[in-house]
């Protein structure tokens, strides 16, 4: 079993090198000591979630919420190419968090929540901020669980106009759509570098007006297969397909 991953503050691993003793405290230290019950000599990984990882062993356990990590190696992961962003329309209930969790575990690079016209769920005011916070917390926890060093950022809620701008700047832009004329994503010509942006619509589908706006931005409709997936699982399946086809899983 690979070593557990714990998230530290941004830039806190700057200047850390083999031989450094790094203190892990606060909520992550408490989780390591009181929940995971790590003991001296056990392997552990620290990451800033932005691609840097410090690998080491537990050197000391102090109380219920702190341990010291003896760093043995430090690794910085380059930005993955091509970069995969999934624009996820807001699903009903907690299915949004499920989508974020499984896409993160699969390997998506960025997630952008989208307020599509046919979304039953709408993020407004404090409720919207709370929901966005849940998505971001889910991405962090899933990033740790899947032993990632680079966690996918979850952007602020996007409008259709903002999604169109994102698609216009992409090296490959696609909208998952079940209409008969959609080409299979499995046969699309994909770039080896740049940004791939994939739009996943809501339960009611992408509206004709949204499809037209996205087509004007350069996005074409694609389908995954003969069956129709839920909005909360389509992004995960598409991410896996893209990671395999671009060689990132090779």
UniProtKB/TrEMBL annotation:
Keywords of this entry: Cytoplasm, Methyltransferase, rRNA processing, S-adenosyl-L-methionine, Transferase
Molecular function GO terms recorded: rRNA (uridine-N3-)-methyltransferase activity
Gene3D superfamilies recorded: 3.40.1280.10, Hypothetical PUA domain-like, domain 1
Positions of the Ribosomal RNA small subunit methyltransferase E methyltransferase domain: 80-242
GO process annotations (BP): rRNA base methylation
EC number: 2.1.1.193
Family in the record: Belongs to the RNA methyltransferase RsmE family.
Annotated PANTHER family: 16S RRNA (URACIL(1498)-N(3))-METHYLTRANSFERASE (PTHR30027:SF3), RIBOSOMAL RNA SMALL SUBUNIT METHYLTRANSFERASE E (PTHR30027)
The protein, known as: Ribosomal RNA small subunit methyltransferase E
Organism: Streptomyces netropsis (Streptoverticillium netropsis)
